[in-house]
């Protein structure tokens, strides 16, 4: 181990009597490196985390689609196109006079654009609208790779060439545990060592340069082995360069030999000594640390020249380019890849390798034109099996692109061919690419491949039949077409699909039964006691579709539904219904059929787990076809009557609850008037309003009885001379015909108004 991993410590001595026994010697063995000991255990992502990751993936896709449409609209700006035409030499304008456009014809135009527009090396943190960003890039003749590619599309459109803006949608990962996929890890990937690391010494920030000078000058310090000194020296650029030249210790498996460790130590000392001498000779060129200024960009070695390696870590992967439709290519014409940033024409087969060199993948390559979009990933991705699992569900993705694809197809119109012909030919080309993928070279790629399969990655319920033709070999394993893979099921499972296994057929495959499936099967054998004899032996007999025949069920005769031995009908699918019957998936339909005296059978549609057991699930009934209309009419009448009764029940319950609430309010007010310090004018008015509301809630007799009961129940203590009970005589009543109000008066002066119904 390195000396920096150890530190000195002290052992406290006890004041008491120390044992005179000698200390026992023991040996501590380290089985792994310190890095492996600190490694955290792998944690599986939960279902909620997976759903959130998928949702974020979809939202990011939609945002990048919207950004691509905005850039495509900016490419069609007439002002930008006119400005580009004004910069174009006169001899290049003759490209519009060519009858048959080819890739070679675009060569001079692409070279001129590449020499006059360069990629800006300064990182611009300010986000601007696409139109203003393109205008600024056009004015300075430099911009980001996205802006330069968009300007090339605008130039092609200004020359009346059918072109599209291509963008690689660098979305976040679809899986929550992915670390090296997505735009957030792009900066981290660029800092890692790799085969495309540039040998040119990069310009570091001035703070780092001053720090490296201090660290290198203190190499001969006697305290060089302290952890703090080594930590500071690791931040110097010379230390980074030495790490690049030396093999990574964490990547090696197993302990190093003593000679190797000594050689690495001597090499580090030599490099540090060289860096110290270099910094002393060039100390005058290093500014003072007090006047340093942090720079967020680096100077590109060649601003106008092409990159030494397309897709290098320094330049980044090619994520933006253009496509121009050349009717002179092939017999039917094709879309030609044009990358003006790297001056590459018709290099669609090189894009995947350039992107893979930067540890990225072509998950989504989308073409934008006419404010629409189209997925053209099949044209540029040479290894589809590597990105198939990283893409979102194809059904959702196709539904999102369906309206955008129509807009894109309408914009690709040429003088020779219409948009429908170009779009159909391109779709045919992409489908042919999907069906003619080359055989993968590694076995892992065949696990979920859409075209090819090997026996190693077959599941327990799969078999290859027939075993041919053999398309090739991978590590000694024969490769078969995916169409030769057959799915096997048990007899009960085939019955659920409306077919049955022939009587004379032998199992195509016999597999061991898992414990979880055995528990489910034991609960289902209570419902199906005629299970196979192999169930008790712990094995499962599987059959293929070629061993099945259509299910023959008895017909319904004289209105009687044919039932099984349990008095029901197993409705796994529509094919499982006996001929002449129909399945009614209605609730509360059994009493209707019983009331009409019609023969029926309960419909069992599956199983569900309850208390650790599999319980059958019933849904609706099975009746003969001739009784379907009568049952539906009676069921509609019954449902209407039930709704009326339920409405009345709800209204009565609401009236009862309102009456309880109002009675509680009246009772509370009376108790407050009796025990709350005497009557007041405000309390008397509130009392009259409450009594009036109570009188409106029911009829006259019911209100009087309730008031008398409340007065007797909550009356104050009897005091001689103060006890009084309101009596409403008939002769003291008055009725208003206009307002339908009846006023009742007591001889004490108390009155109440009641609405006559």
By DSSP (H or I, 4+ residues per run), the number of helices equals 22
The number of E-state strands comes to 24
Helix share of residues?
25-40%
Termini gap: 100 Å
Principal-axes shape call: extended
Secondary structural class: alpha+beta
Q: Beta-strand percentage?
A: 5-15%
Report the uncertain regions: 10-23, 178-255, 276-309, 525-536, 678-683, 712-721
Instruction: State the major sheet.
Output: 6 strands, antiparallel
Radius of gyration: 43 Å
Instruction: Describe the oligomeric state of these chains in a short phrase.
Output: single chain
Widest sheet: strand ordering: 6-5-4-3-7-8
**Overall average pLDDT:** 74
Report on this model:
The chain has 22 helices and 24 strands. It is α+β, with helices and mostly antiparallel strands and 757 residues long. β1 (118-119), α5 and β2 (142-143) form a beta-alpha-beta unit. α2 crosses α6 (145-158), α3 crosses α6 and α20 runs antiparallel to α21. The protein starts with 33 loop residues before the first helix and ends with a strand.
Structural key phrases:
757 residues, alpha+beta, 6-stranded antiparallel β-sheet, 4-stranded mixed β-sheet
Please provide a brief summary of the model.
This protein is α+β, with helices and mostly antiparallel strands and 757 residues long. Helices cover 38% and strands 14% of the residues. It is built from 22 helices and 24 strands.
What is the element layout, followed by pairings?
Layout: H1 34-37, H2 47-75, H3 78-87, H4 107-116, E1 118-119, H5 130-140, E2 142-143, H6 145-158, E3 163-168, H7 186-191, H8 206-217, H9 227-233, H10 237-245, H11 258-281, E4 320-326, E5 334-339, E6 344-345, H12 351-357, E7 365-369, E8 372-375, H13 377-380, H14 384-387, H15 394-411, H16 419-435, E9 452-453, E10 462-464, E11 472-474, E12 477-481, E13 485-487, H17 491-496, E14 499-501, E15 509-512, H18 515-525, E16 539-542, E17 548-550, E18 569-570, E19 581-584, H19 590-596, E20 601-610, E21 613-624, H20 628-675, H21 681-696, H22 700-713, E22 734-736, E23 741-745, E24 751-755
Parallel strand pairs: 1-2, 18-20
Antiparallel strand pairs: 3-4, 3-7, 4-5, 5-6, 7-8, 9-12, 10-13, 11-12, 14-17, 15-16, 19-21, 20-21, 22-23, 23-24
Helix pairs in contact: 2-6, 3-6, 5-6, 20-21
């Amino acid at each position: 181990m390195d000396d920096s991993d150890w530190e000195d410590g002290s052992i406290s001595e006890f004041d008491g009597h120390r044992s005179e026994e000698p200390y026992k010697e023991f040996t501590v063995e380290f089985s792994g490196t310190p890095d492996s000991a600190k490694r955290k255990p792998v944690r599986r992502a939960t279902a909620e985390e997976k759903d959130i990751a998928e949702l974020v993936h979809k939202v990011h896709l939609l945002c990048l689609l919207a950004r691509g449409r905005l850039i495509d609209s900016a490419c069609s700006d007439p002002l930008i196109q006119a400005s580009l035409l004004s910069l174009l030499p006169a001899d290049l304008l003759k490209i519009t006079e060519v009858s048959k456009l080819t890739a070679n014809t675009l060569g001079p135009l692409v070279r001129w654009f590449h020499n006059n527009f360069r990629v800006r090396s300064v990182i611009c943190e300010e986000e601007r609208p696409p139109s203003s960003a393109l205008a600024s890039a056009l004015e300075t003749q430099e911009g980001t790779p996205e802006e330069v590619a968009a300007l090339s599309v605008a130039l092609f459109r200004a020359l009346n060439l059918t072109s599209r803006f291509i963008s690689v949608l660098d979305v976040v990962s679809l899986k929550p545990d992915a670390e090296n996929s997505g735009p957030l890890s792009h900066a981290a990937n660029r800092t890692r060592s790799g085969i495309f690391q540039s040998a040119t010494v990069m310009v570091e920030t001035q703070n780092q340069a001053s720090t490296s000078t201090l660290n290198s000058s203190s190499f001969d310090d006697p305290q060089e082995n302290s952890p703090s000194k080594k930590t500071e020296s690791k931040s110097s650029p010379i230390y980074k360069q030495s790490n690049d030249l030396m093999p990574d210790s964490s990547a090696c498996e197993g302990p190093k030999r003593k000679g190797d460790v000594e050689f690495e130590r001597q090499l580090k000392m030599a490099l540090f000594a060289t860096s110290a001498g270099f910094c002393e000779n060039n100390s005058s060129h290093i500014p003072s640390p007090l006047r340093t200024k942090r720079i967020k960009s680096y100077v590109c070695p060649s601003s106008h020249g092409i990159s030494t390696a397309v897709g290098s870590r320094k330049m980044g992967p090619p994520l933006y380019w253009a496509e121009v439709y050349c009717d002179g290519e092939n017999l039917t014409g094709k879309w030609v890849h044009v990358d003006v940033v790297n001056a590459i024409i018709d290099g669609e087969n090189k894009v995947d390798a350039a992107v893979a060199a930067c540890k990225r993948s072509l998950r989504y390559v989308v073409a934008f034109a006419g404010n629409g979009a189209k997925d053209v990933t099949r044209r540029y991705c040479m290894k589809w099996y590597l990105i198939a699992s990283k893409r979102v569900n194809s059904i959702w993705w196709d539904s999102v692109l369906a309206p955008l694809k129509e807009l894109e197809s309408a914009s690709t119109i040429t003088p020779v061919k219409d948009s429908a012909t170009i779009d159909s030919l391109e779709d045919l080309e992409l489908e042919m690419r999907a069906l003619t993928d080359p055989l993968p070279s590694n076995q892992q790629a065949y696990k979920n491949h859409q075209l090819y399969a090997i026996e190693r990655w077959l599941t327990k319920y799969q078999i290859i039949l027939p075993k041919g033709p053999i398309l090739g070999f991978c590590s000694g394993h024969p490769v078969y077409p995916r169409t030769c893979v057959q799915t096997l099921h048990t007899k009960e499972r085939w019955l659920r699909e409306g077919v049955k296994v022939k009587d004379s057929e032998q199992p195509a495959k016999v597999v061991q039964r898992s414990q979880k499936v055995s528990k489910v099967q034991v609960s289902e054998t209570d419902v199906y006691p005629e299970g196979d004899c192999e169930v008790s032996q712990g094995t499962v007999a599987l059959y293929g579709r070629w061993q099945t025949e259509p299910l023959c069920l008895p017909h319904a005769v004289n209105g009687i539904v044919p039932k099984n031995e349990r008095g029901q009908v197993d409705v796994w699918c529509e094919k499982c219904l006996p001929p002449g019957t129909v399945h009614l998936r209605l609730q509360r339909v059994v009493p209707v059929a019983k009331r009409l005296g019609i023969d029926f059978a309960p419909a069992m549609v599956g199983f569900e787990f309850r208390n650790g057991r599999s319980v059958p699930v019933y849904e609706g009934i099975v009746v003969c076809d001739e009784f379907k209309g009568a049952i539906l009419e009676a069921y509609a009448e019954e449902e209407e009557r039930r709704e009326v009764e339920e409405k009345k029940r709800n209204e009565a319950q609401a009236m009862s609850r309102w009456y309880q609430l109002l009675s509680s309010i009246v009772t509370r007010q009376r108790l407050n008037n009796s025990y709350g310090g005497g009557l007041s004018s405000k309390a008397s008015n509130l009392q009259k309003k409450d009594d009036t509301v109570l009188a409106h809630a029911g009829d006259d007799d019911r209100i009087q009885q309730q008031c008398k009961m409340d007065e007797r129940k909550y009356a104050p203590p009897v005091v001689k001379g103060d006890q009084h009970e309101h009596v409403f005589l008939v002769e003291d009543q008055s009725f208003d015909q206009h307002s339908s109000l009846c006023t009742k008066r007591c001889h004490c002066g108390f009155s109440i108004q009641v609405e006559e119904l």
